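Sequence in, structure out.
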Amino acid sequence: MRRFDWDCLQAFLAVARAGRLTVAAQQMGVDHSTLSRRVASLEASIGVQLFERRSVGFLLTPEGERLMTDAEAMESLALRINARLGDPSVGLTGTVRVGTPEGFGTYFLAPRIAKITAMHPDLEIELVANPRMFSLSKREADIAVTMTRPSQGRVHAHKLNDYALGVYASPQYLDTHAPITTFQDIFNHPWIGYVEDLMWSAELDYLSQISTSLSPSVRISNVISQGAAVSGGAGIGVLPCFIARIDPTLVRILPDEISLSRSYWLVTHADSHDVARVKLIADFIRAECSASGLFWVG
C-alpha cells in the first residue's frame, strides 16, 4: 500500500459530507478536478473504492463508511494539535462558520459582526442563518446557535438568553377585521404558522402551546417570511419580540394573556472548542447576548 497524504484525506471528508464534488470543492476553495484527483489518489493508495459515483452525487461505499470514522478521528486530532500550538497570530486567521436560526442570525448577530471584524481583519466569518439544525461533528459549522441544549455528542453548550414571543398583527389587519379584546377572540381569526413537516425544532410549535385548537391557515417555513406575511395583513401569528419590535407595521395582541418564551444555546464541538478563532467568536457572541439583556424581553 502506498502512502497517502493529509490533503487526500481532507478531500475524502469534504466529498463525503457534501455529497457532491462541486459543492465540496467550493467549500475547500479548490478546483473540482483537483479534489477529484485527491479522492482517486486516496482510493488508489488504500486499494478500495470509497464512493459510488451516481447521478445524485457521491455515496459512500461500506469501505468508505468505515474509513469515515477513522478520518474524522484524525481530523479531530489535527484540530486539537492546532489548538495547543497557542500562537494567537495563527489562531486568529482563517475562517469561522457560525450556524444560527434565521431570526437570531439576521436580526441580532449580523448587525454586530462589524465589531469583531474591525478588531480582527484577517479573520473570516461565515454566517449561515438558516432554519435548520447544524451538525458540528460533520463540520457543517464551527459554532451553532440552537433552540435546545444538545442531549448527545461531544459538544460544549452554553445558554445564551431566554427570549420572549408574542402574538402580532398589522394595524391594517386590526382595522378591517373583528376586534381582538379577549382570548376567545383569537379563534375567529386566520393564523400564520410553520409548515409542519419543515418545523426543524419542536420548540417552534408555538400554536399548540397557546391552544391545541389552533391551526394555521397560512404555513410558512421561516420566521422572517412569517413576519412579512403578518405585516402584510394575511393573519395573526407568533413572532419573537426582538424581531417584531423593530417593525412599526406590527402590533402586539393580548400581551398579558399570551406570552411565550424560548431559549438560545451556543454550541461548539469538543475538538474545536479551544481553537483560538472559534473561542474568540464564541466569547464574542456570549458577550453581545449578555450586554443586550433588554433586547430579549417582551
